[in-house]
Amino acid sequence: MSEIFKDIPEIKFEGKDSKNKFAFKYYDPKRVIMGKTMEEHLPFAMAWWHNLGANGVDMFGRGTADKSFGASEEGTMEHAKAKVDAGFEFMKKLGIKYFCFHDVDLVPEADDINETNRRLDEISDYILEKMKGTDIKCLWGTANMFSNPRFMCGAGSTNSADVFCFAAAQVKKALDITVKLGGRGYVFWGGREGYETLLNTDVKFEQENIAKLMHMAVDYGRSIGFKGDFYIEPKPKEPMKHQYDFDAATAIGFLRQYGLDKDFKMNIEANHATLAQHTFQHELRISAINGMLGSVDANQGDPLLGWDTDEFPCNVYDTTMAMYEVLKAGGLTGGFNFDSKNRRPSYTFEDMFYAFILGMDTFALGLIKAAELIEDGRIDDFIKERYQSFESGIGKKIRDNSVDLKELSDYALNMKAPKLPISGRQEYLESVVNNVLFKG
């Protein structure tokens, strides 16, 4: 097999003063931070669909990037294998240890699902061969149950029993391939699990059926030896007007209502958080405090656009606060998957590498600064001080569940009027963040 990315060297760490376009400035995989190396803190993954498939097409124009990788015709098994070759060469040159996939990212979908499954068997055998002698692994797999017209009304939430069965078949096969490739997780992204109007929708019926499909997936996955986490990836809208996995809190409530919370965690995407009118940090915090922080789709959106732009992360404020949450939670069970795509005018092979260098360096710098924020201690000290009234007296009794409503009322009546709470000191804390981020 000939080299695909011929003019691009192996990407090494050279430090922040380097001007080499093909070098990491902050991502030093062996650097130890808070007891673990960077590559342990940041298990980066390549998204098969964007990196090897997205060619710059948008709703207004044809693709700009050539992602044939030497295959004579796209949408063939020859092309599917060329993408495997390109993907493994790409990951090796960047030192990326994981990849993520949808079923139809790996192979072109046939008219007959039996033929699609045969193709998946063939390509997964080819991927296994490429994995030999490397430390590259599968982070997670999933099934694409949103692109094909059969899923226009959802997959688990569909009004067609036949489509529901087809969705189940896709999930089964995607789980088979995920286990075959040693995947650490399996994701449900409910891109069409929602509604356009309540005039034609039975919400309770649809959510019950989604839960049924997920329960079947868990039972089957465990029966074939899958020991990893299942994930829900929250997103509020697009393509549906309202999606049932609107945000982390909504998805967690759904999992608990239907008894799925022991097997599922969240796969949080930064761009989906902002579409839900939350910060990336918020979605990570909500997941973590509920014991459901699992994995991350690492990207960012454009605040001036109202859709999922899937840009490579460059905002160090966001990655610092994200890594602050991840460090505080003790890390992820999954990893950091770059569900990100090059901008349409960035169409060369070099641009693919520049994008990953940007994303990996941005999260590495966020990790460095998040650790410094924690070690600095001023934020933690202030939060402890802010809630100190609950450490003794009536506050401690509230926390210890040793007081009732009447006793609290009597306390308030004797007090007549409380003092104002301790100041929130938001501006001071923001200055602390700036001080840590920009100190020499």
Rounded average pLDDT = 97
Straight-line distance between termini: 47 Å
- Full CATH superfamily name of the largest domain: Divalent-metal-dependent TIM barrel enzymes
Which spans of ≥5 residues are poorly predicted at pLDDT below 50? none
CATH architecture classification name of the largest domain: Alpha-Beta Barrel
What would the principal axes of the Cα set say about the shape?
Answer: globular
- The tally of domains stands at 2
Q: What is the rounded Rg? A: 24 Å
Strand fraction: 5-15%
Number of helices: 16
Oligomer: single chain
Kindly provide the name of the CATH class of the largest domain. Alpha Beta
The SSE string, one letter per element, is EEEEHEHHEHHEHEEHEEHEHHEHEHHHHH
Please give the number of β-strands.
Answer: 14
Helical content band: 40-55%
**Which class best fits the helix and strand makeup?**
alpha/beta
Largest beta sheet: what is the strand line-up?
5-6-7-8-10-12-13-14
Biggest sheet, open or closed, and with what strands and sense? 8 strands, parallel, barrel
CATH topology of the largest domain: TIM Barrel
Family: Belongs to the xylose isomerase family.
Subcellular location: Cytoplasm
GO molecular function: magnesium ion binding; xylose isomerase activity
Subunit structure: Homotetramer.
